[in-house]
Design the sequence.
């Protein structure tokens, strides 16, 4: 996807989140992202977002303002930074959409795990050689996925609701089955 496409999605996402926050004052806020959007930081087209962009350049450059916003948020939220392994970053990025995929399978919104994979491959830029989040989770072993998600939920600052494994995911893991 082009950077312009991602920037449009960022604008749309901000618009949707603002409406959600207006309707539900208890909705969990993406506080740092919200602050950046409130500052008009929408990426390359504005010359700043999570990073800074020099005029005519596409290179994302670290931005001291963003660093200060993050440090301030951590302090107010009582978050202590920690070193995160590359594997954990990949797991968090893939297991969240895997869990969402399991939920939409439970609700019969889609018929097969491969349907979820195709959406991620076609629309979300998921690496084709990984086959989609449902296949990737299968390759990692669904019991390992469930175990990792439960560990994320219990971690300091973890979001227990976000990392609650879908019932179908747990059922398949316990039965030694997969999404296919």
Sequence:
């Amino acid at each position: 996807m082009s950077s312009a496409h991602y920037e449009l999605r960022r604008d749309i996402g901000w618009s949707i989140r603002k409406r959600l926050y207006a309707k539900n004052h208890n909705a969990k806020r993406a506080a740092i992202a919200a602050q950046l959007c409130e500052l008009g930081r929408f990426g390359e087209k504005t010359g700043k977002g999570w990073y800074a962009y020099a005029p005519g350049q596409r290179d994302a450059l670290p931005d001291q303002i963003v660093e200060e916003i993050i440090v301030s948020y951590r302090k107010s939220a009582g978050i202590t930074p920690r070193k995160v392994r590359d594997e954990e970053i990949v797991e968090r990025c893939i297991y969240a959409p895997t869990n969402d995929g399991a939920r939409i399978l439970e609700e019969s919104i889609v018929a097969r795990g491969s349907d979820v994979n195709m959406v991620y491959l076609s629309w979300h830029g998921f690496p084709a050689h990984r086959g989609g989040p449902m296949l990737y989770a299968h390759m990692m072993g669904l019991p390992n996925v469930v175990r990792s998600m439960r560990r994320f939920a219990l971690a300091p600052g973890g979001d227990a609701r976000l990392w609650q494994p879908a019932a179908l995911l747990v059922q398949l893991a316990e039965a030694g089955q997969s999404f296919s």
Notes: The two ends are 28 Å apart (CA to CA).
